Amino acid sequence: MSVVEETFGALQAPIADFSEELSGLAGIYQDDVNLMVWQRDLESDTEQAVAALLQAGQNFSLNQIVTPENVTQSLELGLPATEGREALIRDIALLVDAYCCLFDLDTTGLRLTQVDRAMCPRFHVDQVPCRLITTYQGPATQWLEEQHLNRQKLGRGSNGQPDSSSGLIKADADIQQISVGDVALLKGERWEGNEGCGIVHRSPGVENGQYRLLLTLDMA
Ligand SMILES: [Fe+2]
């Protein structure tokens, strides 16, 4: 801890930041930012490709280590051969390239999953440096602003109580949600200097018969 931090306490509470440009994702390098979101609308051909893929009903989950060079081929081999899927593959390849470029990585761990239930239904922090998440269809990731949460109630601190009554959140109205198509970088506990400040988030509830298509990229 620096002399300044010892004197004045932690420098600043972590914040979320938003950009309408892909290049804005570099904002994750700011020390006080633990969630950086590129806000965008999906191209209509990408939306159509996603819908076709989910309608194929193959309940797939792809888990691959990819590089910007081989991701297109990997997805062509791994995804069901549904109509117009090239548009989705193109979009994912763009995100793989951006993620690897931003963090100077040769490879990334890609997970593309069709989801029909909440995968991580409780608010939590990730034990990773920084994860990229995009929801291509269905409800997207929920998160909490620092001033609206009590971190001591995370995990075991909840005493077995659900998030709604553990004291973790002050009010349900404080729950924020990322939008479909938006690209979010979630800084976790293992980002150097971010211990105790990982963005607090959870999977949204999924209604019966509803499907999500979720992409995550991790440092492999
Ligand atoms: Fe998570």
Radius of gyration: 18 Å
Number of domains: 1
What is the name of the CATH class?
Mainly Beta
Secondary structure tally: strands: 10
> How would you state the average pLDDT, rounded?
92
Looking at CATH, which topology would you report?
A: Jelly Rolls
Bound molecules: fe (ii) ion
Which stretches of 5+ consecutive residues score pLDDT under 50? none
What is the string of SSEs from the N terminus onward?
A: HEEHEHHEEEEEEE
Widest beta sheet: strand line-up:
1-2-8-5-10-4-3
Helix/strand-derived category reads alpha+beta
Largest sheet: 7 strands, mixed
CATH architecture: Sandwich
How would the global form be characterised?
Answer: globular
Give the N-terminus to C-terminus distance in angstroms: 29 Å
Residue share in β-strands: 15-25%
Put simply, the count of helices is 4
Helix content estimate: 10-25%
Protein name: DUF1826 domain-containing protein
Organism: Marinomonas aquimarina
Topology:
Blueprint: H1 3-8, E1 15-19, E2 33-38, H2 44-55, E3 61-66, H3 71-78, H4 85-102, E4 108-115, E5 130-137, E6 142-143, E7 176-177, E8 183-187, E9 201-202, E10 212-219
Parallel strand pairs: 1-2
Antiparallel strand pairs: 2-8, 3-4, 4-10, 5-8, 5-10, 6-7, 6-9
This protein binds fe (ii) ion.
Fe (ii) ion (FE2) binds at residues 120, 124, 126, 201.
Organism: Marinomonas aquimarina
Protein name: DUF1826 domain-containing protein
InterPro entries: DUF1826 (IPR014955)
